[in-house]
Amino acid sequence: MSNVAIFWDIENVNPSSSTLFIDGLMSYVDEIGKVSYSVVVGDWHHNINHEIPLHLAENGFELIYTPQPRGKRRHRKNSVDIILITKATEMIFQLPHISTYVIITGDSDFRPLLQILKKHGKEIIVICDARNASESLLEYADDYKDYRALLPDDDQESPSPDAQAAAVSAALSKKEAFKILRESVSQMVRNKKIPTPGSVKVRMRLLNENFQGNVEGVKKWQDFINEAVKNNIITMTDDNGQTILGMPSGVPAQDELPKIFKELLDVIGEHHGQEEWVKFNKINTVMINKGIKIKEYNYSKFKKLMMDAEKRGLIETRNTGFQWYAKLK
Questions:
Q1: What are the GO MF terms of this UniProt record (predicted)?
Q2: Going by C-beta distance under 8 Å and a sequence separation of 6 or more, which residues neighbour residue 191?
């Protein structure tokens, strides 16, 4: 069993359902090994639920408070980074028996830390917020997840029949993979990021956690990229030895939503005038009645679909206990 350390930058990853996330995080880490050390750094008075510090303390976290004057957010952010990076680096030598590091952030400033951890043979798992995560950071991790993937399932939620069917294949169909590829490149271009084949693969997985890097009928990732270029789905250029992906000429750099999200938005929109926040299971029921099959889009659970919609900035979600709600952005 691995000895695990958790380092949480709560300024960067601050779930609205923080207490549920903490419960999900601890359950996830229990499957990995034994927690030897855990720390969270941030300003508890800055947009953070007042219940969070107590819940963290109850779960054995060391809490480091970094208050800063209003308007000095970047200075505070630098303080958080320095504290966490210093503590994690010291721990490599002070507690060498810790083999797995769970880093909760998506900030590219943590890349040097991940490089050091990798150099010392540590396993690195990054938990991030897909909306602001740095692909260049995640490329150094042995595994990475959007924090929403750790939120406990809602026992009150009525699962779709598709969720009870056979498990979804780990490999996406080539057609669906091309759609996510195009969406990922478009999103990165819009956000002024550099879409390399590796970073785009990371973004694809963040947008759809069912994607594990496998595409039906494709053995090598570069073969998939080459075929996408050949079919004018994306472009590929060389910039001083670095391969850069892009959108074909004349195609706007905007997200090209898969059909399932357009259908989801239509369903939520139907209730928007009646109620601001709509229950997940109500949305799910309407979609089932309309014959919308989420399995066809590689979703085995309705909640995963909703979390992926939130990652794209299409909806907002909140919870009351285990009851989940959504509204249009």
A1: RNA nuclease activity
A2: none
Whole-number Å distance between alpha carbons of 184 and 199: 10
Residue 218, both tokens = 């494709």
Per the domain annotation, does 126 fall within a domain? yes
**Full residue range of the structural domain in which residue 73 is found:** 2-150
| Same domain assignment for residues 218 and 274 | no
**Range scoring the smallest mean pLDDT among 10-14, 121-125, 131-135, 157-161:** 157-161
Q: Rounded to whole angstroms, how far apart are CA atoms 122 and 101?
A: 7
Cα separation, 211 vs 180, in Å, equals 9
Same domain, 202 and 297: no
Q: Which helix (H) or strand (E) holds 151?
A: none
Strand partners, 9: 41
Q: Tell me: do 84 and 187 sit in the same domain.
A: no
Residue type (1 letter), 225: I
Query: Do 267 and 228 sit in the same domain of this protein?
Result: no
DSSP letters of 74-131?
Answer: HHHHHHHHHHHHHHHHHHHHH-TT--EEEEE---GGGHHHHHHHHHTT-EEEEEE-TT
Whole-structure pTM value = 0.83
Same domain (yes/no): 228, 265: no
Neighbours of 248 (CB within 10 A): 11
Q: Is residue 199 classed as helix, strand or coil in its secondary structure? A: helix
- If we measure between CA atoms, which residue out of 191, 192, 188, 202 comes closest to residue 234? 188
Nearest to 41 by CA among 71, 16, 64: 64
Whether the predicted pLDDT of 69 surpasses 80: no
Q: Among all chains, which residue has been given the structure tokens 């249009």?
A: 328
Q: Say which CATH number the domain at 113 has.
A: 3.40.50.1010
The sign of the torsion formed by the CA atoms of 170, 172, 173, 174 equals: negative
SS3 assignment, position 188: helix
282-314: pLDDT as tens digits: 999 999 999 999 988 878 889 889 988 998 889
Which of the 8 DSSP states describes residue 313?
T
Q: Could you give phi then psi for residue 125, rounded to 5 degrees? A: -120, 125
Closest by alpha carbon to 151, among 322, 328, 4? 322
